[in-house]
Amino acid sequence: MFFAAKRAGVERVVHVSITNPSIDSPLSYFRGKALVESALVQTGLPYSIIRPTWLFGGQRDVLLNNIAWILRRVPVFAMPGTGRYPVQPVHVEDLARICVQAAQSRDDLVLDAAGPERMAFAELVALVQAAIGSRGPVIPLPPAMMAAAARVLGLLVGDVVLTSDEITGLMNGLLVSHAPPRGQIRFSHWLRQYAATIGGTYANELQRHFAVRP
């Protein structure tokens, strides 16, 4: 696609990737993102590569929405490991702004898109739990048991809830940036504003992307 864009005369590509991609990563998702970035660079097209952390907000929020959905409906919330690993959510509007600004650059850019708040995953879950009024226990599970629990829930909702690679990436702290944050919207502020509606319905990613529409 990148080479087709070059043949078509596209002047610049703004590509949305992921934080901490690596061609040497044992995780296929992060390795694949690095390979796509490399393919873009090889075209010789001017580029801006934007690497978001964990997206939240907007109509297509999946992971955060479904955490709230589980907290609302399941008596026990299972968390991978201790939950002490860091996350750094970034709002979709911040990501859009960063992409638009990067499109105007004349230089090749590789930028992280991360929000202003960095916290442990357990802290994020506690914030969501308090915001929606959930009081169920949060229990830590080893990664293998967490993946099994996610598969069981996936069968019930007809979706892929959480993969083993996603669990490993989360626990390895790959959803954070090591650069100064470019996002401005604070997750904690946004959460208070949308606490009444977040997790009201389950966001089925498979249906969004692969459902046959009339």
Explain what you see.
The protein is an alpha/beta fold and 214 residues long. The protein has a single domain, classed as Rossmann fold (3-Layer(aba) Sandwich), CATH 3.40.50. Helix content is 44%, strand content 15%. The protein is built from nine helices and nine strands. A three-stranded parallel β-sheet has the order 1-2-7, sandwiched between helices. A two-stranded parallel sheet has the order 3-6. Helix 2 (28-43) links the parallel strand 1 and strand 2. The longest helix is centred in the N-terminal third of the chain and has 16 residues, at 28-43. The model has no long low-confidence stretch (mean pLDDT 94).
Keywords for this entry:
alpha/beta; Rossmann fold; three-stranded parallel sheet; two-stranded parallel sheet; 9 helices; 15% strand
